Amino acid sequence: MKQTLKLSLAITTLALLLSGCDSNNAQDKELIKSLEAKVQALEKQLEQAEQPEATATTDTDTKALEDKILSLEKQLAANKASAEQPGGTLEKVKKQGYIQCGVSTGLPGFSNPNENGEWEGLDVEFCQAVAAATIGDKTKVKYIPLTTKERFTALQSGEVDLLVRNTTWTLHRDTALGVNFAGVNYYDGQGFMVNKSLGVSSATELDGKSVCVQSGTTTELNLADYFKFREMKYTPVVFDTEEKTVGGFKEGRCDVMTTDQSALYAHRLGMEEPDSVVVLPELISKEPLGPAVRKDDDQWFNIVKWTLYTMLHAEDLGVSSISVDDMKNSNDPDIRRLIGLDGPKGKGLGLNDDWSFQVIKQVGNYSESFERTIGMSSPLKVRRDVNALWRDGGIQYAPPIR
Ligand SMILES: N[C@@H](CCC(=O)N[C@@H](CS)C(=O)NCC(=O)O)C(=O)O
């Protein structure tokens, strides 16, 4: 009963969020009102429902939820696509003098404000790289913190020019939301974190447990799949922000927390006693995280794509923020094309010929950014593993610059 109510509530809330309504339009006003009323009624019913037994999510529940989400997201994409002028992000960004970059509301290592209120992290540095490429100054970024639920709407509506917010590239998101993923800046996977006192050392031992999870994420869907496929039961405890999800886990409102594994490591470090908490070894999904842009703007799409490739190539060719000035004297044809001395340069992207030089000089190559933000020079100490370059045993690889 409570499970069904929760599903209805989730669907209605999603409908409300995704409606993309114009609040001045009478028809939309009505829709907003009715959805708000439905959310309120469902919340009330949910409060009144008796405490649940740990229940397995049924096939019909999950299927209905997925179908509904699919159709709502389609509607949203159609609404927004018709409202958007195709193309022009580069021009807009140059005119306004900065890029609006959608980041998370706070995820250490990826996008998080430091004690001085300055945003930092792997995703933040990627925003800076795009600013260096397009405006010539990595500081020209306005960071817009977005929750998981807000992120796609913010991109579609033009509130942000670029979304770099630990967002997983999926078929559905790529095809139904009016957005394009421009690559993968971090290959992640979904994991579980528990208190050591729970006495669990593997995800296969989580039958019957309660799990804190953030709504509007691939995490929520993978969680349902994982338990259903193994005929295990669980009680989802759902929150709409990261802060609340972690808070829920800390307060003991659930036995387990699940999200992208990199984030679990970050949150573990933020616990009062990190050693009392353990990240379980299993990864239950693939979460390739990457920057996304609005569709129908190939120029901007290419700029974002090739900014990432530039950082990867620079690492591959041993060109760093420190050495890039000297590289202007290099005879290596790959290096000369990388920094825009020869080859296609900036023309095809509508940028200055030194755009890639500025990315490397001001932000650095992929390795520099990785180590500084989440790698060995950071508190997180994440190893490169699958995120290493192809020649070092990882899968990071960029197409040729020529
Ligand atoms: N990668 C998954 C999960 C994203 C996600 O849940 N992110 C959370 C946890 S890592 C988050 O960004 N929280 C920060 C926030 O809500 O601002 C997705 O794209 O759906």
TrEMBL record:
Residues 98-316 form the Solute-binding protein family 3/N-terminal domain. Keywords: Coiled coil, Signal, Transport. PROSITE patterns: PROKAR_LIPOPROTEIN (PS51257). Gene3D superfamilies: Periplasmic binding protein-like II (3.40.190.10). Residues 25-52 form a coiled coil. Residues 1-26 form the signal peptide. It comes from the Bacteria. Belongs to the bacterial solute-binding protein 3 family. This is Transporter substrate-binding domain-containing protein.
